[in-house]
Amino acid sequence: SNFSKKLRSGYDTSIEYSREVYSSKMQKRRNQNRERLIRDLRDEVQKEEEDEDGYTTMMRSADGVSLYEKALLYPGQLLLRGIRKLRGHKHKPGTLILVRHGESEWNANKTFTGWADPDLSEQGVRETEHAARLLLAGGYEIDVAFTSRLKRAVRSAWIILGEMNKLYIPVFKTWRLNERMYGALTGLCKSETAEQLGTELVQTWRGSLKSRPPAVKVGDTYWPGRDRRYSDLTAEQIPLTESLLDCMGRTEPAWEDKIKWEVQMGRNVMVVAHANTLRGLVKIIDNIGDEEIQEVAIPTGIPIVYKFDDKMNSVKPEGTKYLSQKHMRGVFLEKPGELKEAMKKEQEWCEFVPGYERTMRRSAASSMTPVERALSKLKAEKELGKWAGQFIDPDAEVEDDGSDGNQGQGINFEDKAWEEGMKKLREGEQFDPTGKFHPDEVKSKILDEEDVDEDEEEVYSPKMITSNPCLQVMPSPSQNVIPGIGDIPIRRDAVVVIIRHGKTEHNKLGLFTGWEDVPLAREGRVEAKNAGELLKSYGFEFDVVYTSWLSRAIETAWLVMEPMDCIWLPIIKTWRLNERMYGGLTSRSKSMVSQQYGEKQFKAWRRGYTVRPPPVSSFSVNYPGNDPRYKLIKDIRISLSETIMRSFDSGKFSLERKLPKSESLKDCMDRTIPYYEQVIVPEAIEMGKRVLISSSENAIRGLLMVLCEIPVEKISELEIPNGLPLIYDVKSKCIKLLDDGSGNDPLEVYNFGKAASYLFRPCKDENGEDEECDITYMAGGLFSEDEIEDAKKLRSSIVK
Fold it and tell me: Does pTM top 0.70 for this prediction?
């Protein structure tokens, strides 16, 4: 019957009908295969994006763990799941903290910025430091952070975490949190553009949900495709222009796939991003309508805190003593604008207070703890804010702050909070939105503990910056030109650069450091910066950075990256690159240990490959289990004894890991080498990536023992200088040094120990012939002789 119908439809024979049926089935099969291929490609792209910046590696996997360790981990994981199931335990959602980066150099000039990459202004740095102090004062903890790939947001996240002593937490940089792409408007002054094209048209581009500015042309100065930080994006993912709706749509996957999941798992998440991407997150979280979101504005440098119920619905705090914007359930930790108003009155305040700058000059070298130092500075800022409040005219017209939210007219606060805040402001009082922080009580306790000269007047005042930075035009990126250096070829071959952290005060005093988290000394910071400048002068670039959980190694990596203008790179932090755990020797001087235990025992502990120093107690300040950062470890087996002991001590169940109480050199290498072989090699080196590893001496010894085939009995005789880049050439499989232009032989300047001959074996080229060990020959004929001479002269001038 079907055939009859087909014949009546125009088929003359059954053969024609059969061909048509066969062709239709084949077409359907081809379409199915095509859809399957597209689906597989999308899954592959999604998987790669989920692991952007090492996210999956750091947060959802146990890579670098041996099979033996995994076998020990598995029973503990089953036990934990069983306990949670019996108790009906569900993760209580964590806290979400949103922070717009501090004022940038272009914000100060009301310039369309978008995906352009200006740095923070001096005021922006101050705003960001202030944001960190507000979080500290409120008792907020951060477990994981997300930010964009733009310098102003990355640096803001770095400043906040540094001020809170949390540099070790994972920070993930995603292009999805980049600011809205302003297309051809990028780099133009907002007010001048409005004068030329009309205020209504420009305001439509700024405030409308769906209007797009004119697109930037491919190849133009501000086309993102010129920038290698976006080399992992497809042509379709790189925007030429965006509406606010486009920007919000780009942000949504970052929320759904990562940020929301982390909050659901009970982690406290900080997102440091930009006005429009944060508005996108707020729209999703609070389910704000398309019209209403245009009335929402995000100020720079003021943390916004979100709480959630079990179903991940945002909830408002109880009572009226909080500061919240219309349409939003998130709470501001301070009234926006107060700090800026205070900064305008800085000079007058300085005249009133003779010792004005003393409080804000306190650094890590002071006798105060990081928390005490931050809170004392916060009180100083609030004292200034209270004094400056009397000069604010509450009826003054709100100035367009240059942001797109609410047509640039600032914040629409909810009525109760607004009325209370304005009343307090008129009375010259500080408005405390959370009601949890009482500065007078906390600061008085700090000041009682602080050593102050009895004859000196106590002053609590900040050093504020009032300079108004000029517009800095960004240099045009180029594949063959290094900004600030000139026409030096960029090295594109796979390479591993290993650097030991810069000197610390412990290094200078000859103290065992181990897992103690001491900061870099001033000399150490200089060493790290010089290393970055030297690498930049040779045309080095990196694709990924690996470091430990110790701030001296993390800061060294950052200071190397800064002059190379690549702080947007993924920094993958792992405890497996930590220094050797010295147990009971931690913080003790080497001469003290030698004197107490004898030279023979001292050498056995320090140089022995399998000898462990005395272990620390479970309740020692030097035991890693008492450091909150090591609560994040999931790739160490559970310790039954520690779990029982600490659960009894705290009165509630506490799952504990078997963290090291002491390590031999072998123990240190047993965690370092597998991580290198099972994570760094397959995920970076085999993928042709250029790798920077910033770590500590004994962890680096483990890496070099593998790379340079150094015998076990000789590895303890190898010395690793602080702040010196060691270049491992993947092709010739040897270590090389960079000529710094001083004319000095690095083997005479630096001490590599008795095993130096194993480190600097002759390099072999692809044909097995001896290769020149000067680094300029590393790329296999990349440089001509004239270029080599020019490069050496340039390096010499840079060093001078």
Answer: yes
